[in-house]
Protein 1
Amino acid sequence: MSLFPMFLRLEKRRLGGAVAADGEALGREGVNSPPAPATANAPAPGSCRRWGSQSAGLVARQSAKVYLVGAGPGDPELLTCKAARLLAQAEVVLYDALVSSEVLAMAAPEATLVDVGKRAGRKLLTQDEINGLMVDYARRGKMVVRLKGGDPMLFGRAGEEMQALREAGVPFELVPGITAAVGAAAAAGISLTDRRVASQVLLTTFSRGDSGPFPGGLNWAAITRETTVAIYMPGVQYGEVAARLIENGVAPETPCAVVSHASRPEQQVLRLTVGTLRDELRLPAPSLLLVGRVAAEDLTQWNAGLRPGALEPARGEEGAGRNN
Ligand SMILES: C[S@@+](CC[C@H](N)C(=O)[O-])C[C@H]1O[C@@H](n2cnc3c(N)ncnc32)[C@H](O)[C@@H]1O
């Protein structure tokens, strides 16, 4: 059964924005075929904004296709040029809760916007329903942007959505975005792989619990003295997160940073140590926790205060990371 009529009433949130004027043809290739060479669509350097600032009504009809697009951490200037262009040209935008209103405002005024977001346990639509919507709109000949916070391929269920599109025979394309860990690192001035103290970055979450396909959760053995850990969806129970890190061998003195609303006007950065993380911090979601020696407030802390042996390198890792 088509989900289309059921969701029509959800979709009429209008925001500012406009439509690209040049009506360039988008790729009409097969499923997940590579994008056209960059030169075909590339805006002139520094001219990204033109995609969101042209008058409406001049866009040529786009081919039916779904673009899984990364919206970045919130600042609209952190969108890729390609994301901005597609957003300005889309006939339908299916967006998640974490997409900022400034980014949404870059959609065309006549585009249909559908909030498919899930936030704090309040599910608007199931994943199957979202998949159904993408397929329905594409089959109606629409150019669809499926807009996801950060990068669609990181904690974004892009895999399930690509599978649904592939099975339905709907052409799609992926457009990466700046993931929250990278946005948060920039906000906090943290070099995630600073070669003096880090050799690897682990992007992870505790939010999947122990009931998923990987019972037992995180691979703690992968965390060494040289690991920077980016914890997505830490929730607000920072005390619990700290306890979990410490019971699995992370020294309480390990520096960390909580970054809330990275790249947005309400951005906040708190630098602490794992041992001083507390529930009372109450930094508003979305927030992300960066843990590791790279998060030290000043260079003198990098090698101080780490419990000897707590984060010993795994066998064979000594010397890693010297060349970058
Ligand atoms: C479901 S995950 C989606 C991640 C997204 N696909 C990405 O690549 O960033 C949502 C989590 O990303 C993090 N996040 C997203 N935007 C953020 C921001 N602007 N500041 C801090 N954390 C953010 C938070 O940990 C949030 O709970």
Protein 2
Amino acid sequence: MNNRSEPKGGTLRGQPDLHHQLLHRNREWSRRMKKENPGLFTELAKHQHPFFLWIGCSDSRVPPNQITGTMPGDMFIHRNIANLVVHTDQNLMSVLDYGVNVLGIDHVIVCGHYNCGGVKAAMGPEFDGPAADWVRRIRDVARWHHRELQALPDEQARFDRLVEINVSEQVYDLSRTSIIRDAWEAGRPVHVHGWVYSLTNGLITDLEVTRTRYEEAVGMLTTR
Ligand SMILES: [Zn+2]
């Protein structure tokens, strides 16, 4: 199976009129879904009741539904470069507010991935453009954990660990938002999870930094 498309689709590389291919595959997919899940579209057209809110990287190799075997309607999704939680990001905060307060989602997952280009960029020299400003937050994360990172044997080990630490820091930042704090205050069983995905074997590792109440979130600060 190639890694550029749906399992049944074949490669998109080198094909003319790529966008037509997408529309063609969409029709095939719709046909298959109707056959395999009669009534699914009728049900989904009425409402959505997703169980999970996914905050992941924009990287094309980490498609949330495919890697978790979930269906349309299962997951509310926000993606950005290096899966960052920024309190001034109206986009993410709107998704979080709607997901937690309107859709009633109790499981919020921050999923990073090894070999993340955004994290790698933050480990390298300064550069220009909007992405430079965006990944600056990861430079801060690296600075806070400088001692731990420097103790590691090589650059790849530091890269892998920074990907993990970055996820933990986003879980922490998420748990400090008023949206999550208010949900906990109201007695909601909201879980904030930190996961990392491996591009080399397709497996997700739970970093076991799950937060379920405010005290735990504050506790994370002392481990810094
Ligand atoms: Zn990435």
Protein 3
Amino acid sequence: MNGLKAEKVLLYRLIRVNIISEIVNLTKVVVWRLEGMIQQKKYGVVYTPNRLADFVASLIKNEAKQDKYYIQTILDPACGEGALLKAVKNIIEDCENFYGIDVDTEVIDNLSKKNEPKTTFICNDAILPKNVKVKTSTYWRRKLSVISAVIANPPWSSEKIYDDQRLEMAGFSLNAGQYDSYVLFLELAYQIVDEGGYFAFIIPDSLFDSQNEYLRRFLAEKTQIRVIARLGEKIFDEVNRATTVIVCRKAIPTDESVTMCFRLNTENRKQREHHNPNNAWLHSLRSF
Ligand SMILES: C[S@@+](CC[C@H](N)C(=O)[O-])C[C@H]1O[C@@H](n2cnc3c(N)ncnc32)[C@H](O)[C@@H]1O
């Protein structure tokens, strides 16, 4: 083989190697993206816009203020990138501890690196934590000790990712028949929050469907439902489901218990992109 021919062969091989490694890299990216999409679908990853996070945080603050209840710790059991915890930190300054749990390792790693004061992030499955033999609520109560309030935009997926028998052993009872994953998070919040504490949830309007009669009965009998805010559709860009915010106090309802209910009007719904600490949504709720 003369020199020129050898160079050509070498060049050809190099190009081939490059093309093959490019294809391998591209395949890795596609697989990685697909895995991400599957994970997103499985765990219902849609983060809360600031405006909605501020609104929900304000609702908890207002209820606690009204009851003269001191919020010592707040937990988001499906914290994602921490939008809701950030919102409560901004307005409930005297709170001593903020806890965030999420199954997503990457998200928790990133949040933990920020070393935020008074804040602890835990990577685990909030519903069935790994290697736990006791009931889920017992585990979290032991680990976190005080939980004055739970704030959450949990996954809404209807995909059943847990075995019913395991859920029962872990202390869940609302997972009968067809249910969305937020139902488990609501039951968990009720179980782990302190007596007299609050839980505020961003959930879909399926709360009002017939399949959720048992859940509604559970909340109506065991908690004081303080707020039901029906925000309608298009609150989240990626989700075409109507959204409701519900705030409950863990206390047996009395004859004096009042539930504030409202529907967001179209004009206020349009302002959703705008981040506004003096939340106009809250004003419409107050004026209801
Ligand atoms: C709808 S996103 C909301 C995230 C965040 N709370 C917010 O408002 O932006 C739901 C989050 O729940 C997490 N998640 C889903 N299933 C979970 C589980 N079993 N335990 C803990 N986190 C979970 C997902 O990884 C995702 O970050």
Protein 4
Amino acid sequence: MNNQRLGLLVFSLACISSGRVFADEGHFGYDGSLGPKFWPKNFQTCAGKYQSPIDIEEHLVTRVSYPPIRYHGFADKPVGSTLTNNGHTVMLQLNTEEPLAVSGGPLKDHYLFQQLHFHWGHNDSVGSEDTINNHSFPMELHMVFFNQKYHNFTNALNHEDGLTVMAFFYEVSAEDNFVYAEIVEHLPTVVLPHSEAKLSRQLPLELLLPNDKSQYYTYHGSLTTPPCSEVVTWIDFKESILLSHEQVEEFRSLQDTDGDAMTHNNRPVQPLGNRVVYFNEREDYSSAVCSKSALILISALFIALLATN
Ligand SMILES: [Zn+2]
């Protein structure tokens, strides 16, 4: 791959790039000749067998009980937060003193936070990328992490276990979500593609998420934007986050790289093929409890039992 092609690939990475868009083979959109149906023309992997998003049918999932997911640094206030319109979505990047990371659950490694971004639709009846029993939610949050052992996001894209994306669905409620107000109020300052803004109030990541994160679906899939790399362990949480209709509507006012309103940026669902979707019903604490002190206690009880016989 020559430097020009490599540059193009890096530029077009899922919701990451903030470089200029050229009217060439790296450009993608959600309508007409730039739409998802035509992505495979320039990005072959977009026609692969392990693509995302998918429809998750609850009656077909395999029920499992993984160890608890560990969230590192999620309660800490970032030092700085930057909101960027990258022409395809709006993303939030955080500067933190300690690295933000996740491990445990279905993950075999430690994954470091890269950025989070959103997908939404024309109106409140559509917008999420994955669907549950063919139900689409008005918006979806993607928190993107790369496997620490691959050192950075770009390198992680070359490995099957390179990324994990934590996905959260939104539902519309009558009330504004006051935590999200900080993000929503800054959207008018990033209407233009490739514009960015600093948040004035710093939000610990955990405030953006629902309380109950014990139930989730997980499967192997891809980035939902070109180059559609099949390197993602998806973790889709069952409990939704609530936003008001007015808050969701603000996202639709952003402009894409063609200067059009970014009314929708959700890829249609792709075939599941022979993949299995797992559903974590409850966390398995047995592995977490098996600490040194628990082992000593069990040994003491065993010895005491022997002594009474
Ligand atoms: Zn995404």
